[in-house]
Write a structure and sequence with these properties.
about 325 residues, TIM Barrel, eight-stranded parallel sheet, about 40% helix
């Protein structure tokens, strides 16, 4: 049984013994540190091979025309300085006020050949792929984060119309990608960060009104092509996990263990309905623990959320402050 077959059993929630892991995505500064520590080639792929990683991630957003911004948030205004700054659509009352010459993204600017070629190299691995679809963050940039949240109450129709227009692009883009992908990859992976350390950014009621319908649309495209659906959200999102399950997701990443309500013990209630990807705390534990403590924690979390768990750090980006020995310890703790 190769990695792809093994992980598919986990995603089907039919696993009984073999375990799987995903390293995540080592930061550019992390790669040479690990390569030097292990005496391997200075590439992410060499790291993945060294750790016997079962998965690979190829996000298709990078396939957009390199000289054209996918989303132009500074259209007609000075460049935004921070997330709270109002974006280029902040002053509008309805969707029709958006200038007719605004350069909306088009799928004609997407060429997926590079990603298809990368996927073809890893047919024995479980490949996560597709557009990242961060429409929640796109709306934050168009309107300004605080303004966006206020407009959910003050001007909900405009928020709904703008969200629909943004998600139209992601739906069409994934449809184009999947139409030519065929059976070369099994998992559509997309994400938006809905949680803080303590709770959701917005109320569960607003999440269900302004976010959930778009999730259902994005999920439907993947299901149309027979793909598994994995979604990402950092933070404390326990209040919407039942909604995500009902919407049709198959796997949830990254299980930010230190966020409120996101420890393995609290999430075990969903393990018959969902595959978990992550769960090994990367905020402080991976940074400060000993390798043996990492091994013990992997076994502990596996015992609570397994057997249908893909072991991985609770954040996909592995920063340079995570010791190489600790990432290696995670791999060594997997019963392959």
């Amino acid at each position: 049984m190769d990695s792809r077959e093994k992980v598919m059993r986990i995603l089907d929630r039919k696993n009984t013994d073999k375990q799987a892991m995903w390293t995540g995505n080592p930061n550019d500064l992390t790669v040479p540190i690990y390569a030097d520590e292990w005496g391997i080639e200075n590439t992410r792929e060499a790291i993945f091979d060294y750790l016997k990683d079962d998965c690979r991630w190829f996000m298709t957003d990078a396939c957009y025309a390199p000289d054209i911004p996918m989303w132009d948030f500074s259209f007609g205004i000075d460049k935004r300085k921070n997330l709270s700054s109002e974006g280029c659509f902040a002053g509008f009352e309805n969707f029709d006020e958006i200038p007719k010459d605004y350069p909306w993204p088009t799928v004609n600017n997407l060429n997926f050949d590079v990603i298809y070629n990368e996927i073809d190299k890893h047919q024995d691995k479980m490949v996560f792929t597709g557009m990242w679809c961060p429409f929640f963050h796109v709306l934050c940039d168009y309107l300004g984060m605080e303004n966006y949240f206020c407009m959910m109450y003050e001007n909900p129709k405009f928020v709904e119309a703008l969200t629909e227009r943004v998600v139209d692009f992601y739906v069409e883009a994934n449809d184009k990608f999947l139409n030519s992908l065929g059976e070369r990859a099994d998992v559509i992976f997309f994400g938006n960060d809905f949680g803080t350390q303590r709770d959701l950014f917005i109320s569960p009621e607003n999440w269900r009104r302004f976010i959930l319908p778009s999730y259902i649309r994005i999920i439907a495209v993947g299901k149309k092509y027979g793909k598994k659906i994995m979604t990402h959200s950092c933070g404390a999102i326990q209040k919407i996990i039942p909604d995500l399950i009902d919407a049709g997701i198959d796997a949830l990443h990254p299980i930010q263990a230190q966020a409120e309500g996101m420890c393995a013990e609290n999430l075990a209630q969903y393990k018959m309905d969902l595959t978990f990807v992550g769960g090994i705390d990367a905020q402080s534990f991976f940074v400060n623990a000993t390798p043996q403590e990492i091994r013990d924690e992997v076994k502990r979390v596996q015992g609570i959320l397994g057997p249908n768990l893909i072991v991985s750090p609770s954040h996909e980006e592995i920063l340079p402050n995570v010791p190489a020995a600790n990432i290696l310890a995670m791999s060594e703790a997997i019963d392959r």
